Amino acid sequence: MSNPSLLILPGDGIGPEVMAEVRKIIDWFGAKRDLVFDVSEDLVGGAAYDAHGTPLHDDTMAKAQEVDAVLLGAVGGPKYDVLDFSVKPERGLLRLRKEMDLFANLRPAQCFDALADFSSLKTEVVSGLDIMIVRELTSGVYFGEPRGIFEEGNERVGINTQRYTESEIERVARASFELAMKRDKKLCSMEKANVMESGILWREVVTRVGADYPEVELSHMYADAGAMQLTRWPKQFDVIVTDNLFGDLLSDLAAMLTGSLGMLPSASLGAPMANGRPKAMYEPVHGSAPDIAGQGKANPIACILSFAMALRYSFDQGDEATRLEKAIEAVLADGYRTADLLGEEGRDPVSTSAMGDAIVAALDASL
Ligand code: IPM
Ligand code: MG
């Protein structure tokens, strides 16, 4: 059988730097665990715009449809702010999500012991935190029609549409229940059924799907109350399922509970392909951080953990994913910190590549 295939799209800003560290990890698994991937690399976002005048070339889109998994760094930067909306770097990312139909976006918020003090919340509130937000990723207000800026009388009106079909809600709900079954069997669904019809339908469909999962304790919360509860006592949650826009907001909130956006991976999953693997793209939750790009300051851990998610969800290598996660824990416990993990602390941070090297050394030590 041929090796599993990976398409790497480093993107913009710190994307290429953090991805270079992921390449070290991929090479390690090839050399030491006989897990060899066919890796190809291409452009996305501003980098693709600079080369081709589009944030995602059709050839790249076609490649993404063929591989077993896509690994993406980050897109965007101030240089591209002046571009027309239709060719902004973010459009490349959104096109990948939409055309690959990656409807379930898994965003874990996990607090590493070594970093519990680093959260802006009290240590007891966040230590041991391990929750998973499932964000619907291919519909809702991000894609609903009508959308645009239109003339209305003597002024303009900006319109976006929140739109969900029953089947769109059902499939992300099902993915979330399946995940809850493998975790603590608790699922909280968040919408605004008090003000939005799409929220009423969301609640109804999630409840209906829940009948197939009697073991999972299902609850519902309005998304604003959910935000409040997430900051008050996040450990009350296990899996949270929510729509595209609420998921965008709530996952940033949940990310910060853990101390640093530089730590959090994500998986975007679609329907199974012919080989049984889900269509999948993995990316760190953080952005392109143009202010620190090219300086060796970026934290590669979110991107490396995204590869760990790929091992787990695309390649059935849960044990190797755990090995990688444990190596990262060990490195953090040993005191390795990139700049984002030091805050006001006066000591010198390690560089992006030194962090990658330390993780490779910890992987070696795990054998
Ligand atoms: C995210 C980002 C994206 C989004 C942007 C870059 C388009 O914020 O992945 O959370 O809004 O979905
Ligand atoms: Mg976001």
Automatic annotation (TrEMBL):
Annotated protein name in UniProt: 3-isopropylmalate dehydrogenase
EC number: 1.1.1.85
Presence of the UniProt keyword Magnesium in the record: yes
Organism of derivation: Thalassococcus halodurans
SMART domains in UniProt: Iso_dh (SM01329)
Taxonomic path: Bacteria, Pseudomonadati, Pseudomonadota, Alphaproteobacteria, Rhodobacterales
Function text: Catalyzes the oxidation of 3-carboxy-2-hydroxy-4-methylpentanoate (3-isopropylmalate) to 3-carboxy-4-methyl-2-oxopentanoate. The product decarboxylates to 4-methyl-2 oxopentanoate.
Alphabetized InterPro entries for the sequence: IsoCit/isopropylmalate_DH_CS, IsoPropMal-DH-like_dom, Isopropylmalate_DH
Keywords: Amino-acid biosynthesis, Branched-chain amino acid biosynthesis, Cytoplasm, Leucine biosynthesis, Magnesium, Manganese, Metal-binding, NAD, Oxidoreductase
NAD found in the keyword field: yes
Catalyzed reaction equations: (2R,3S)-3-isopropylmalate + NAD(+) = 4-methyl-2-oxopentanoate + CO2 + NADH
Cofactor dependence: Mg(2+); Mn(2+)
Subunit structure: Homodimer.
Family in the record: Belongs to the isocitrate and isopropylmalate dehydrogenases family. LeuB type 1 subfamily.
